[in-house]
Amino acid sequence: MQHCFNIVTVFDNAQLLARAAASHIAQLANRAAQEQPLYRIALAGGTTPQSCYLELRQEVLDWSRIHIYFGDERCLPEGDSQRNDRMAEESLLNHVPIPSGQIHPIHAQWGAELAALDYARRLLQSGPLDLAILGLGEDGHTASLFPGQDYRQEPRLALPVFHAPKPPPERVSLGPAAFLAARHLLFLVTGASKHDALVRLKRGEALPPQQFKHGQWFVDQAAWNGS
Ligand code: 6PG
Fold this sequence. Notes:
19% strand; binds 6-phosphogluconic acid; alpha/beta; 7 helices; 9 strands
């Protein structure tokens, strides 16, 4: 299988990557301003994107046009410190003038099944994402799409995830259909711990990110070269 690395930019370190990613996101959103009133961004969870979100606070962006979605959410109580939306609020959303009605959290506290049905309906109403930011797990997962599942025929825009290998076990993830429909995908990958997953993807292994051929990859040296 042809691998998914069509556009890869390698940065010397994670901080330079974060700064470049913030600038790239702002450029994409500002460039779209000429042709569309709104700009829909799905944020990644985990720890890697946090430094990018901190940098994004400094970028010149018309936040009145931005709608924020989430690539996945952990089924934890609302406001739990381990939720992806809480991380995004603390690193970015509480610090920029985005109207609160333009932040669209996944109601993961309702349980995976109900929250996934609800989010799929909301995504259908909102239309395709303009940009989805994604991370990469050490095992090759992205969002909450984990290896070992065959998502190629999965039609749902959002799906419940149970027994996730990365805690918590119950999650909601955007499905491949939502990511494939997104105009831009930006993967942010840093650290030597991600090198093995990148090697497996380079070899063409059928890990979840492999199906997203239009993804753009920002990686640091440690992840790309393993040191
Ligand atoms: C999550 C994320 C997950 C994350 C990767 C990478 O809920 O944790 O959605 O997909 O992006 O596991 O996580 P790190 O950036 O913390 O390495």
